Amino acid sequence: MATVNLDSSVAPVSSTSDRGKNGVVLGTPLVVNPLEIHSNAPKNVSIPQEWSPRYRLVLGKALATSGAHLAIVDINIEESKSQAAHLEGLFKELNPNETNPIKITAHFADVSDTVSVNAAVEEIIAAHGRIDNLISGAAIIDNISAVYYPIERAKKIWAVNVDGSYLFSVAVAKHLMERNSQGSILLIGSMSGSVVNVPQVQTPYNVSKAAVRHMAAYLAVEWAPFGIRVNCLSLGYIITDLTQKIIDARPDLNERWTSLTPQGRLGTPENLTGAMTFLLSDASLYVTGADLRVDGGYTVV
User: Fold this and answer.
1) Would you say which domain of life the source belongs to (predicted)?
2) Is 209 considered catalytic here?
3) What is the set of domains in the chain, with CATH numbers?
């Protein structure tokens, strides 16, 4: 089951499929659901995030078409329901003769609130029976100079971006340990956790993504004895509806970001599905604590 969780503002400026496995997908502003690999498809996946709707649809499609059951979690429950219905319809369209269709459910959660997160996880388990994997990527971003940044706004960013991933990871890990079951947790990070972005200013966001990257490394070591893998997927500049509007209004930003990216272009949500599929599937059973950057080479120059 795969889960994706989204809050409000988001960031980009910031085999054969194994049926019977579940995936949980959370989120509206964030969108995460990929899993299409010729190995074992992901099992139950939980994903708390805050991406653009396009992210979730693209990644959710990859997970759904691989046969994963999904749980979509968002602070906007109507958005979750809409995307769940869309993905279920897509699966039926692609598999008209399937007698055992995938199950996709929608759930509410405020990723920054412990009670809300735990309630969502319990609700997902009740609906699907178990959670095997988690994708957590809730995130908010602002481009404001640090000297003018309202501290309460910075705390909100850290609560969603850092606490959100931590709370969902802990809740799912507890569930896996109680079942004595292995699982995979994928935290959605950003190249901003490793470099200083230019020309925009976004200190609280970069700090939060650096925390997420190290969180993945630390939890990977702590939970390895339980068979739980934890990895980080750090994204570069990805084109979404939001980023497209930004670069349409500020062509100079597009030129700057593109010139700093060795591949000479911005990425797309479709460019993320392979990496996510790999880290959630059995193809990466010996991979944990890794930070996989999908950034067109931005961070190596």
Assistant:
1) Eukaryota
2) yes
3) 2-300 (3.40.50.720)
